[in-house]
Amino acid sequence: MQTIKTLIKQVKQYKKVTLITPIFTALEVLMEITIPFIMAQIIDKGIQSGDMGQVLFYGALMILAAFLSLTFGFLAGKFAASASTGFAANVRDAIFANVQTFSFSNIDKFSTAGLVTRMTTDITNVQMAFQMCLRIVVRAPLMMICSIVMCVIISPSLSMIFVVAMIFLAIALTIILTSATKIFNAVFEKYDDLNESVQENVSAIRVVKAYVREKYETSKFHQASGNIYKMFVKAEKILAFNNPVMMLAVYGSMLSLSWLGAKHIVIGNLTTGELTSMFSYVMSILMSLMMVSMIFVMMSMSVASMRRIAEVINEKPDIHSPDDPVMEVKDGQIDFDHVDFAYKHGSGELVLKDIDLHIKSGETIGIIGGTGSGKSSLVNLISRLYDVDSGCVKVGGVDVRDYDMELLRNEVAVVLQKNVLFSGTILDNLRWGKEDASLEECQKACEAAGASEFIAKFPDGYNTWIEQGGTNVSGGQKQRLCIARALLKHPKILILDDSTSAVDTATDARIRKALKEYIPGTTKIIIAQRVNSVMEADRIIVLDEGKVVGFDKHDNLLKTNAIYAEIYEAQTSGGGDFDEGGED
Ligand SMILES: Nc1ncnc2c1ncn2[C@@H]1O[C@H](COP(=O)(O)OP(=O)(O)O)[C@@H](O)[C@H]1O
Ligand SMILES: [Mg+2]
Hints:
By secondary structure, this protein is an alpha/beta fold.
């Protein structure tokens, strides 16, 4: 119910057309209903008494009714189409707008594949159901009621035939539909799997190829789509019973109607014209019943889609700016006061435990630790990509939760570990950091980030087109562009999360030196796998399983910290850095 409410809200400016559609449908039905009635008049008053004038009069009336019914039907169809496409557009906008407000933890809840499916397949399903409903929800019941009323008026006793036929049809359809719906629901769950496998394999097609997994993935996909095929066939087989059941009901009624009707005519209870019109009404009644049953199928098929869409629209961003935000970041001082953090709040699975760190403004801090030790999690708290579970994180002496979020994220620039470039030129991408940056500014930032040399080698220089996801530049080039993009913000705090991992050691060292000159007053936090990258830092944080196990200068850590000494030892002995000279 909540689901439907959420979706109905999205009808918005299409309310008018949505409401007009049923009105025109109703008019269409009324016209259709009168046609058999006029037919009866032609037969009884015109043909039987041989009155040509009556035949022409009622004939003209019938053509008018047919024409009106056609016109109303056309208008209803047109309005239904524009209402449903408009509705779908609104739903799409609503999802997109809401996804933009999501925090990182909101995004963690939905997979990218899931979000894309919701914005495409699911919306199409709902749009189709909406359009069908607009037309049929009014049409079928109205048609049925009007036809029944007409029949009862003509002959109450003959109408009993329909009652029997309808009960039979209702029971048979219910059995058929419930069993088919069960299968359809299962199919849609399988669809999700299929979509996910498409998303994953197509977007990671390079990896699939690199590992020569094409055959395996293809056969996996073939199996998944084969499963869906089988289930669909099974469902359709059951639905195929619809027709014979329907035919049985229709022809059964016709036969009994002819037999009983003939008797009535002989007695004089019924005219020939009336009997003819009853034949039309019996068809209408049973057809409407059929349509009602189709609505149920459509609805049950789209309920899952509706729920999935409503889920995204109703998701509330769990991180937002406070009502009265602080609008200035004083300096780049960072304090962690006894911070605990878990990705699922309150789950107790702490990723960071009792972090208590105090970093002075302008310091350069290195962070080192094994994968999964919580390095990325730690720095993501500084720009408030996630909120802490307990304790607090302060920037410039103020709790990050008290800042305006946009301001905070402009002053705390993060080059994420999983960074991306967007489709557009290099300049477009750089200007994500600062919208109105001049070419000189961009060049300076690229200089500092070690990106200017390779950009100069591109024929189009700064206007080189970057493909979606940055697939046409190497990993190291991408990293350097991402650093330049962050530098353009001239932030008070710069965080590099493993941002030079694909850059060779010499370039890495050059970038670090350039950063010192480019943004001297900025607090720099450098996460790295290589001790080389952090050993010149003012202080180094050693993380292990979500705890700070060391925080000191390189020389002191070597003497006092076993874990640090071990990492250093492993990386310097045995011929030095393994990726030396890995320029790309
Ligand atoms: N988005 C996430 N949702 C849930 N758990 C996560 C998420 N990101 C990381 N984790 C978990 O948190 C722990 C620390 O991860 P992370 O901070 O990325 O480590 P590091 O950067 O040191 O490799 C890991 O156990 C990881 O599985
Ligand atoms: Mg990480």
